[in-house]
Each structure stands twice: as C-alpha cells, then as structure tokens.
Fold this protein.
Amino acid sequence: MKDNKYSLRALALLLGYPDANLRASLPQLVEAIESEGAVPAGRRLEIKALAAELARLDPMEVESRYVETFDRGRATSLHLFEHVHGDSRDRGPAMVDLAQTYEKAGLLMGPEELPDHLCVVLEFASTQPPKLAADFLGEMEHILTAIFSALLKRESPYATLVAAVLELAGQKVQAVPVVADEAMDEAWVEPMAFDGCSTKGQSKPGDEHPIHFVRKVPAEQGVRT
C-alpha cells in the first residue's frame, strides 16, 4: 500500500477553516497530494480545482461558504460523533476515549480542537502506518459516505475531499440517501466505545483495536455484512 501520510495531513488542512494561513498554503498542500500519488489522479484534479477556487474567490466569501457548509446542520458536520450520538450524553465518554487514544499515540490536540473532528481524525491517521490508517478510516465508512452524500447534494466542491478520504481508506465512493438532520440521532448507533487503533507503546504487536460505527437498520431488513 502506498504511503498516504502527506495526503492525509493535506486533506486535514484543506478541510479546516479557510483562513489566510490556509489560503497561503494551498499550493503546497496540492503539491503534497500530487507528489505522493496516493489519491487517484482524477480526484487530484478535482482537489486542484477546489484549491484554485479557494484562492480565486474573495476571502470573506470563502470563509462564509465554509461556515454555511459545515456549521449549519448536522448532515454535513465534520464532528463525527454528531452523526453517532447527536447531542446525547453518550458523546462525552466517547470523546474522552478517543482523546485518550490520541494521547497514547503522542498526538497532542490544541485547546480548541475536539477529538471527533474529521481534521483531527485525519491528523491522527497520518501518524499511523498506511494499512492501519486505512483500516482506521474504513471503520468510519458509513459516516464519511453520509457526509460526502450531503455535500454532493448541496453541490459543494468540498465533497471531493471527503471522497478522497474514502479512497485512501480503500472504500467505494458512492452517494446514498441523505438522512434529515432531525433523524440523524436515530439513524446511527455505536455499539461499543471507540477503541481507537493500536499504536507503538499502546498494545502488543498484532493486537487489533477495531472502531465500530454501525448504521441501524429496521429489523425486517436484517443487518448488512
């Protein structure tokens, strides 16, 4: 499997708030993704087009679009546990578990960062070996697909970044019906605590710590395997 750490870090930054520092770094981020070659060529062209648009538009418009895209409804929220727990009290313990996973791996978050934000998740994944990073992100496939689908429905160019994450996770990129925001809490459940993934000093070699994000389906439909 190709190395993917620079692509994951670049995607983490590209999904962040587009302030002046990020806009100034756009050429380097595009080059990092291009030179590593882990993201498919067609997707790299789309990312390059997105970066060009962010650089061309008025800064205030770029920032306004970002807020409107990611901070105005749960369907496109980059906080992954929003799609699992919503505003329930179960979100707190899950956040603590995930933060502890990062700490054991030596990843220190900023004071304003939340561990379930996709940018932080990608930053952590970039510190792992390629196969482990792909497996880690693959456990979030249902959530990433839901976010991708919601962005695609809004015709947001940011959809290509989430699609790239799915591809780096070895998952198929496909649109699914978008769940209404008010129904999001019932559509997703997490049967276990977020176990994280094994890192140096955290577990014995060969140990597996799967992350299980499972979509709830009606009983008569059965469970997809």
